[in-house]
Design a protein that fits this description.
CATH superfamily of the largest domain: DD-peptidase/beta-lactamase superfamily
Number of helices: 8
Oligomer: single chain
Strand content: 25-35%
Order of helices and strands: EEEHEHEHHHHEEEEEHEEEEEEEEH
Structural class: alpha+beta
CATH topology of the largest domain: Beta-lactamase
Strand order of the largest sheet: 1-15-17-18-13-12-16
Distance between the termini: 18 Å
Number of domains: 2
CATH class of the largest domain: Alpha Beta
Length: 377
């Protein structure tokens, strides 16, 4: 039976304003830009290369805290004791005092807003018993989330040659944080936090710009350079950007802002079908109906460059005619979506109804007509 490819040219309306194409350059060493709704990768640069996460590590420390808050094993009011090891930790600090007991909520803000290395150790010891044991829990969770390039050796991102990740792995972690903990994600957008009468501002530069940014975390060491895992939302779209290896604070701020603006400006989401919608009718062979509706089970939203919209092609491919009997829900076709500068998307399509088989006389007559006329009258 021949393969039929039915073009669906009526899906895309004309008159869309096309954005000007431009090449994207960035001084960051590792980058990935992802559209969260569809999972489309808009841009990547050495996204799978192993790199040092620095304080972007703290996203995982917070993730494990959020996980325990959500399952009820911790509450925001629970208190963790500050050890001497936590108090003595260098780098950025929440300025906890040895022997004090600090609430989980204050520690969350100390980790996210103030980037306190001391706060991460308090949490690590409170949950894991030791920072080393907690780092093992972090690595275990990373594997569970699909972060294949990530190994954690501490809770803060303190330099360690074996403490590594990738831009893509951090994007996975950012996405899961946003999706898994909407009730706690708001901490990432807080602009300042005061503890022990010391007020500190959030280090994420994008939060201070009117660009829809609401998270997540900066990082910096001599080995890693300046990095940022960020997310921004505009007009029902959300982007996640991980960019690492900038040469300065200024370059990180400007470069990350440019990546997000480019993603929103150059790309867009287009809903092609709703869940359960009929896509086409397929010809049936020896059935008690001549056609069967072909449906898509899940909504289909695609992300493509705005300039590619007018050249978007949507087609249905199937072996024609489809022999009866056909049971509703059976996969019978494939939706093929293609556009310039994007990968071709293939989506399974299913029978939207059942078609019975003709009886012996009907099959004989249909076969005769097919031989004579090449198909149904």
């Amino acid at each position: 039976m021949p393969k039929s490819i039915v073009a669906l040219g009526i899906l895309i309306a004309a008159g869309f304003q096309i954005a000007t194409a431009q090449a994207l350059e960035t001084s960051a060493k590792q980058v990935v830009v992802i559209e969260l709704t569809t999972g489309a990768v808009l841009y990547e640069k050495d996204a799978n290369s192993v790199m040092y996460p620095a304080s972007m590590t703290k996203i995982m420390t917070a993730y494990l805290l959020f996980e325990r808050l959500k399952n009820g094993s911790l509450s925001l009011e629970d208190m963790f004791r500050v050890s001497e090891a936590a108090w003595r930790k260098g780098g950025s600090k929440m300025f906890v005092k040895v022997g004090d007991r600090v609430s989980v909520e204050d520690l969350i803000r100390g980790i996210i807003v103030q980037s306190g290395n001391d706060a991460t150790i308090v949490v690590a010891e409170g949950i894991g018993g030791s920072e080393t044991a907690f780092a093992d829990l972090m690595t275990e969770k990373a594997r569970e989330l699909g972060m294949s390039k990530t190994t954690f050796r501490n809770a803060s991102g303190w330099p360690d040659p074996d403490h590594v990740t990738s831009a893509r792995d951090l994007a996975i972690l950012a996405e899961r944080t946003i999706r898994d903990f909407p009730e706690y994600y708001h901490y990432y957008s807080e602009l300042s936090f005061t503890y022990n009468k010391i007020k500190q501002s959030n280090r994420n530069p994008l939060l201070y710009k009117k660009m829809g940014a609401d998270g997540l975390k900066t990082g910096h060491t001599e080995a890693s350079g300046y990095g940022l895992t960020a997310s921004a939302s505009r007009n029902e779209r959300r982007l996640v950007v991980v960019a690492n290896g900038f040469g300065s604070v200024k370059a990180r701020a400007a470069g990350s802002e440019r990546l997000i603006d480019w993603g929103f400006r150059t790309w867009n989401n287009y809903e092609l079908f709703t869940g359960g919608e009929k896509v086409a009718d397929a010809q049936v062979w020896l059935g008690d109906a001549e056609t069967v509706p072909v449906v898509i089970k899940q909504p289909l939203v695609i992300t493509i460059p705005r300039k590619s919209r007018e050249k978007l092609k949507v087609a249905v491919s199937y072996e024609e005619p489809i022999p009866a009997p056909i049971t509703a829900g059976t996969r019978i076709a494939t939706l093929i979506v293609s556009a310039p500068d994007t990968k071709t998307i293939e989506v399974p399509l299913f029978a939207g109804g059942s078609v019975g088989q003709l009886g012996p006389v009907g099959r004989l007559g249909e076969a005769f007509r097919y031989l004579v006329w090449g198909g149904k009258l």
